[in-house]
UniProtKB/TrEMBL annotation:
This is Anti-sigma B factor antagonist. Pfam families: STAS_2. SUPFAM superfamilies: SpoIIaa-like. Residues 18-103 form the STAS domain. It comes from Photobacterium indicum.
Amino acid sequence: MNKAKITLQSLDNGDYCLSGVLERDTVPAFWRQRCEWMPQGSKVTLDLSGLSRVDSAGMVMLLHLSQQLINAGCDFTLLNVPEQLKTLLRLSHVESMLAAYIK
């Protein structure tokens, strides 16, 4: 059985692609290593089209990541947000926290 993983690929000009499985088994190690992968720059676009699964731990990680980027003064955008994540945001009553950043 393959162990689930999550990766962040840097594309160009502040564009990043998050892919894999963003869930309770992958979030802790990924978050601990955020100094290595934390997006830099004044404009950050995070494409989520490569995510095959997102659970509530992944949702919370994205909320924290967005807050860090926004607090750092980044122009932050989320692209291709999976329906599964939109549903989690809505059911958790936190969709308003990311609504302005989802394109």
